[in-house]
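FYI - complex with phenylalanine, inputs then prediction.
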Amino acid sequence: MEKRTDFGSKIGAVLASAGSAVGLGNVWRFPTEVGNNGGAAFIFVYLLCIAVIGIPVMMSEFLIGRHTHTNTIHAFAKLAPGKWWRIEGIAGVFVAFMILSYYIVISGWTLFYLIQSVGGRLQADRDYSQVFTGFVSNPWMPILMGVIFMALTHVIIAKGVQSGIEKSSKLMMPLLLLIIGILVVCSFGMPGSREGLRFLLKPDFSKLTASVILSAVGQAFFSLSLAMGCLCTYASYFRQDTNLPKTAVGVSTIDTIVAILSGFIIFPAVFSVENVSVDAGPGLVFITLPSVFNIAFSHVPWLGYIFSGFFYLLLLLAALTSAMSLHESVTAYVLEAFHVSRKKAAIAVSVACMTLGVFCSLSFGVLGDVKLFGLNIFELFDFTASKIILPIGGIIICLFVGWYLDRKLVENELTNGGKLRFKLFRLYYFIIRYVAPLAIAAVFLRELLP
Ligand code: PHE
């Protein structure tokens, strides 16, 4: 077995974790949720959720990973030998495996749209709803795209922690932030930018219902990659002098800024075009946006060309850095549990995920009628992972750190053995014991109960 490595630098650790957090959830899911839940008021609650629940739960995952320096399954087993808590480690790795299987499908679509857009194929006045349905229901093309995307992820993971994950994050994350900057500037020039900004910035608190609040908690968890073993695995590569609370705040800040800026990119464009609804749902990015880009930039087509090319590149980079963390969560376990080389472990994970991914992909076409509880394969994976295993996992992590682990151990880990000051420790501990588990339980019950 290879010797365990660390991230070589603190900035590498922050950028890799931020890469995990910044993903399709920020650029695609967040604007959709904002659109569905009434704009600025939702954003306000979302920010509160990140600060009050998201950051403390992230710190908890970090401390489990860094304290044990091993993969998520072994981490729980090490901290609670012979106890049932182990199940959370298993659930975390299992859910990462499941999510990766369908995450590569959407990531493959993103790759296809990037290729189309660079080839100038998104520049025409076409029926984009038909383009989308035609593409996803085709048995071959989406799978081919998924395979290419998986191969990219695989190559990075097989290279290892420092020369794979860390190096590529250091390259891709700044590039991603640069692209966002360019797109925000472009989108301020659009005719609908004022209205878009008003929608994003002027809260209408009458729109705040219980369901809006609960959607915000759910989005915060998904976006910060919590409860999937990813951040726990990454933290197992953190060095002993990494400041965990500060890193959690840094990662969450980057994630939140990217989500909000994605709103600034998408809504001015959407408001520039009449008859397009802001709550178009998941089709927003693949159906609505291509037509919106065309109409909004009809007077300067070359700008539309650049805008859409950069947009899909942004989406692809975001997806890739997140897929890397999902892959690593599983690979780290396989490699440490079965004592095989990293290359072999990564191949096993890539092939297994891709096999499941094929079924997820085909569920948009030939396997569309294969359903369980009224959900096709893709929807079933998404539902089981994000609506059932994730929330339960979140609650278990809070209870584990707040009630099972020794308080001294938790405090020691968050202050690096007393070397750092962490003034808000008592507040953190209170949140982890009471506030966070109750809030997550509320989301969970709301999602499951009719
Ligand atoms: N946080 C990622 C996003 O915003 C999604 C993700 C989930 C990534 C789980 C890794 C693990 O898209």
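Residues 20-21, 23-26, 99, 222-223, 225, 228, 230, 322, 325-326 surround phenylalanine (CB under 6 Å). Residues 42 and 403 are 32 Å apart (CA to CA).
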